[in-house]
Amino acid sequence: MSTTHFNSDLRVYGTIYTNDGYVKIHNHETTDGYALEVKSDPTSVSGTHFGVYATMDSNPSTATSAMQLAAVAGVGRLASGHTQTSGTLHGVYAQVCNLGTLNGGPIFASAVYALIEDGGTYTAVSHLAGVMIDSHLDNAVTSGSYEGIFLMNSGNTAMGSVLYVLANNNITNLFTIEKASGMVSDSTTSDYTFTKTRKIKVVAGAETGYLIMDIV
Predict the structure, then answer these.
(1) I need a labelling partner for 8 at 20 to 30 A (CA). Which of 15, 74, 108, 203 fits?
(2) HSE of 55 in the Cβ direction (CA atoms, 13 Å)?
(3) Do residues 90 and 105 lie in contact, with contact meaning Cβ atoms separated by under 8 Å?
(4) What is residue 214's predicted lDDT score, i.e. its pLDDT?
């Protein structure tokens, strides 16, 4: 089924396809600025307001499930055969922008907020994380840097911390490193009298150095 609507409530400049309860908006071969725009101006002074609210309740038809699920999926993809020489390519772009005044100690403002909500039973998992970053890249990056997280400060305001941990006395380790033979190695330096030391490789100011971890 294919329908196109033009009215005051829904303005569509492409085609909406509906089938089995889902809606697809296709905007192919176009120079338009977007395929879908959602804008709201809430006037309430309390409660919660979402510009886009996506809820997915998985209800598998069998007792067990091996589905890969995502409430929101963003894919930024450069089509095959094309070359991009500048600009950006993001799967998801998030921005927090204050054009007024933030004045309150309890205020949290972030471009991305990730929450693990309580509920259900976690009998066994590989990992449960607020943020998971993975890479499937097999091709070499011949020029430039390749990393899991890239952080920069392009403003003039000094950033207090790269990482702020509010542990609430309920976090066991600062971090865990596994399968990192190129990053972590045994120390052979005899200057240390501890039972064992580990060297964690870091690069600071274009120079390679090591953080020494004492195992006692």
Answers:
(1) 74
(2) 3
(3) no
(4) 79
